[in-house]
Amino acid sequence: MSENLWAPWRMEYILGPKGGPCVFCQPSDLVLGARASAFVCLNKYPFAAGHLLVVPKRHVSSLADLEDGEADDFFRLVRASVARLRAAASPDGVNVGMNLGKAAGAGIEEHLHAHVVPRWNGDTNFLPVLTDVRVMPEYLQETKKRLQPSFADL
Fold first, then answer.
1. Res. 25 pLDDT band, cuts 50 70 90
2. What is the reported pLDDT for 142?
3. Residues in a beta bridge with 42
4. CB-side exposure of 11: number of CA atoms within 13 Å?
């Protein structure tokens, strides 16, 4: 007899509207902190608990489009996010990356963003490969409550 593993949050993403206004240009209750021209927020559809996105405030799709001050804020936030995530969640490692263009895997290629993903030894398994299901150990708002104090000064 097989067991079911429920991931109902995925249906919102699967059936949700595609296109429309940029999700990064809209106000979000998932923002943890900001600098003058960039912000850090929780990923609404995370790969791991504490999966962060660092996003320039200006709607640009390329690193080359960032002005020097924007690039500085953006990469300072990436660096700060890694440090604060390590302090708040104690991951064994952290993935940092950007998918630049659809061919590179960008789900939202119109607005540049970086992923900061905490990783723990043994946190991967066969489910994402076989069933497109991820086991999330914590709800987003609980993750936000845990991480928010680490970003309070931004």
1. very high
2. 87
3. 52
4. 3
| Residues recognised as catalytic | 113
Q: Which CATH number fits domain 30-141: 2.30.30.40, 3.10.560.10, 1.10.3720.10, 3.30.428.10?
A: 3.30.428.10
Helix axes 140-151, 68-89, angle to 10 degrees: 110
Mean pLDDT calculated for residue range 30-44: 96
Question: Beta strand pairing status for 38-42 and 52-56?
Answer: antiparallel
Q: Which helix (H) or strand (E) holds 52?
A: strand 52-56
Q: What does each C-alpha distance from 87 to 1, 19, 39, 118, 132 come to in angstroms?
A: 42, 36, 19, 11, 30
pLDDT higher than 60, residue 47 = yes
Give CA separation, 53 vs 75, 81, 88, 139, in Å.
Answer: 12, 9, 16, 17
C-alpha–C-alpha distance, residues 73 and 148, integer Å: 19
